[in-house]
Amino acid sequence: MIPFDYHRATDVEDAVRTATSRPDATYLAGGTNLVDHLRLGITSPSLLVDVSRLPFDDIDPLPDGGVRVGAGVRNSDLAAHPTIRRDYPMLAAALLAGASWQLRNLATTGGNLLQRTRCAYFQNPATPCNKREPGSGCSALAGWQRHHAILGASEHCVAVHPSDMAVPLAALDATVRLTGAHGDRGVPLTAFHRLPGDEPRRDTVLEHGELITAVDLPRLPPTTRSAYRKVRDRASYAFALVSVAAALTVTDGVVRDVRIALGGVAHKPWRATRAEETLRGADARPASFRAAAEAELAEAEPLPGSAFKTTMAREALVSVLTGLAEEGAR
Amino acid sequence: MEAEIRLRVDGTTHTLRVDTRTSLLDALRDRLGNTSPKKGCDHGQCGSCTVLLDGRRITSCLALAVSHDGAEVTTADGLAPGDTLHPVQRAFLDQDAFQCGYCTPGQVCSVVGMLAEATDGRPSHVTGELTGPVQLTDEEIRERLSGNLCRCGAYVNIVAAVRQTLAEEAP
Ligand SMILES: Cc1cc2nc3c(=O)[nH]c(=O)nc-3n(C[C@H](O)[C@H](O)[C@H](O)COP(=O)(O)OP(=O)(O)OC[C@H]3O[C@@H](n4cnc5c(N)ncnc54)[C@H](O)[C@@H]3O)c2cc1C
Ligand code: SF4
Ligand code: FES
Ligand code: FES
Description:
The complex is a heterodimer of chains A (330) and B (171).
Chain A: E1 5-8, H1 12-20, E2 25-28, H2 34-40, E3 47-50, E4 59-61, E5 67-70, H3 75-80, H4 82-87, H5 89-96, H6 101-104, H7 109-113, H8 166-171, E6 175-180, E7 183-188, H9 189-192, E8 211-217, E9 225-231, E10 242-251, E11 254-263, E12 270-271, H10 273-279, H11 286-297, H12 308-329
Parallel strand pairs in A: 1-3, 2-3
Antiparallel strand pairs in A: 4-5, 5-8, 6-7, 6-8, 9-10, 10-11, 11-12
Chain B: E1 2-9, E2 12-19, H1 24-31, E3 50-53, E4 56-59, E5 72-74, H2 87-94, H3 104-119, H4 138-144, H5 155-169
Parallel strand pairs in B: 1-5
Antiparallel strand pairs in B: 1-2, 3-4, 3-5
Helix pairs in contact in B: 2-5
The complex binds flavin-adenine dinucleotide (FAD), iron/sulfur cluster (SF4) and FE2/S2 (inorganic) cluster (FES) (2 copies).
């Protein structure tokens, strides 16, 4: 690990000013991804700007009935918050399915969104990787592909975004609140993470020095049921092979509204818009759910080593939607 | 770069200068001589470095010491002031919940943190009803301790040690 300067930010303005002042400055929150990467030699900033004590660690109601989650809220506290458990169960469930209790007690909302891929080649500085070292090649194309993408990948990078939390946030149409040198902006979560294209180095649309200050959750109708399902190689403490976040609103047996996002399948949390379109107005029956899942996954382009995920994603989606519909009918 | 920090560890306050790269784990072990938290992986993957930071369990290998200036840290060592073992430590002995013992200090801190979380009504990944009360079944105990690996495979007896602690606590 190369030496770095350390600055504990006193407020948001100070954080942004300090981080903007150096091209290779990096924010530090819980450190559970950044410190790992410093140690692995994946990144070597000359300055860490510590935002872990900024007063953006509250969960507050918004005037429109939604909820504002501060960027510094720990993953464990977000999952345990009464409002999140009651009104956004798929978000609480996704958080509880990620990492371990020890890690979630450190990990923050902002850091979780910006955690980087767990692609084994990205994490090993000895292997070529276009994301870590642009132009060096993608080792996964002829390598181990179990944890790689089936949707939206490019010839330059087939990595997936590893966050569980980001999947329900994508389904919810959450907004990421940012403060930068040129002011504030809000970015829809679905537009926050990027597909790799020919620039896999960039995971998100965040500009250098921009700070995540909060994530806004819109209100969901009280009749909406939501759930998160994570499929992984062991029962706990493992990243997703495939995950599904879904929120379903059914009246008189007809799908009035549905929101679906898939995790573990793409470079970003994958909002399943085709499946949603197929389902709106359809009968809330397993056959409809299967048709919707098939519509979404028709464009899947897996690698040989990730081909199993297309089936896995389809079955997980059908199962989650069927479960939600049954729950609603009870 | 170096920075001066203060840490209160197991009831004693220390002021020390650390390189900013120093993890909380290395500060405890190498600078303060408290070797009860162990370095298993140094990547957040094994839980052997678990300590209580302001009462909450964390992986100290991924925490930078400088970022936790002023914090109150409890290690497994500090759970037993003097010769009296903490009930969780005694339960590990009674139930034979370790073999080599390398993961044990982390396991013990993790159990102490877990019991507080459960008392606080925090659900886990296997809790059916997210808003309901928490019942520490064996399944719950296993899920809540999944962040602590044991290469000796003492898991069965670790669950038994937690059950013993719970039984002792019951009114
Ligand atoms: C062993 C292990 C298992 C894990 N398993 C899972 C899992 O199953 N599911 C899952 O979802 N995650 C998992 N994680 C990842 C974990 O969720 C992330 O490491 C964590 O959420 C990152 O949050 P942090 O606050 O620690 O971020 P940090 O490590 O502090 O920062 C991460 C990145 O975010 C940037 N950053 C942080 N805050 C801000 C901000 N406010 N504004 C702008 N930039 C910011 C930092 O500059 C850095 O680039 C696992 C991690 C480990 C070590
Ligand atoms: S998939 Fe992406 S992150 Fe993994 S080796 Fe290829 S370029 Fe790197
Ligand atoms: S040493 Fe910290 S988790 Fe393994
Ligand atoms: S007792 Fe040996 S690693 Fe757990």
